[in-house]
């Protein structure tokens, strides 16, 4: 590869990484807005059940453990690929996706139970804020599962390359970001409801 084409490839990756960080910053702003909205709307339950009566911190703790475990396996996937252990990287990525899917099923199960009991987003401002915040995080998890599946296919096909390392690292940063957002959701929404 010539020096000119190498420079072009590096510039291309620099732009992609800059774009990713820009996207992540907009996501931080989005979630900060949703957290602020939730905090303002939380006391407005229209004389219906409060957060303490509806939300189960122990159930959310199970979701938290599942998502943190997926973050751990995602980190293992990146490290394994960095050290040329393709099989371990693939296995770790599969576990990440399975744990992420499990988290999503648990979240959807919680939503289904709330809706079945008549506690929809239309009932009160508190529930509107709750469903918007938590469902937005769930949507990001769903997108992460699609991205992770694409990364799994990419690593299976190409193994360890500079390109696959960059892409898997960016996916890992996104996945860890979602875990961090969930920690805030768990602390503010679920533990906050118990206090």
Question: What this model shows, in words?
Answer:
With 195 residues, the protein is an all-alpha fold. It has a single domain, classed as Four Helix Bundle (Hemerythrin (Met), subunit A), CATH 1.20.120.80. Helices cover 86% and strands 0% of the residues. The chain has helices at 3-41, 51-54, 57-82, 86-116, 125-158, 162-194. Helix 1 (3-41) packs antiparallel against helix 5 and helix 3 packs antiparallel against helix 6. The longest helix is centred in the first third of the chain and has 39 residues, at 3-41. The chain is elongated and about 65 Å long. The relative contact order is 0.16. The model has no long low-confidence stretch (mean pLDDT 92).
Distinctive features:
mainly alpha, Four Helix Bundle (Hemerythrin (Met), subunit A), 6 helices, elongated
Quick recap of the structure?
The protein has helices spanning 3-41, 51-54, 57-82, 86-116, 125-158, 162-194. The chain is built from 6 helices and no strands.
């Amino acid at each position: 590869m010539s020096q000119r084409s190498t420079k072009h490839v590096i510039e291309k990756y620099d732009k992609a990484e800059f774009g990713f960080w820009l996207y992540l910053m907009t996501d931080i702003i989005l979630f900060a807005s949703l957290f602020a909205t939730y905090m303002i709307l939380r006391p407005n339950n229209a004389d219906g059940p409060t957060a303490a009566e509806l939300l189960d911190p122990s159930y959310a703790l199970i979701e938290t453990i599942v998502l943190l475990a997926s973050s751990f396996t995602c980190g293992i996937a990146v490290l394994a690929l960095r050290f040329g252990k393709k099989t371990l990287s693939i296995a770790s990525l599969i576990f990440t996706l399975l744990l992420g899917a499990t988290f999503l099923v648990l979240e959807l199960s919680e939503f289904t139970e709330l809706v079945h009991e008549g506690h929809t987003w239309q009932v009160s401002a508190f529930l509107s804020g709750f469903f918007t915040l938590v469902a937005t995080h769930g949507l990001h998890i769903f997108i992460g599962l699609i991205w992770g599946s694409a990364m799994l296919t990419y690593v299976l096909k190409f193994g360890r390359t500079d390109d696959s390392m960059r892409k898997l690292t960016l996916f890992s940063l996104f996945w860890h970001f979602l875990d961090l957002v969930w920690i805030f959701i768990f602390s503010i929404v679920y533990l906050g409801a118990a206090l």
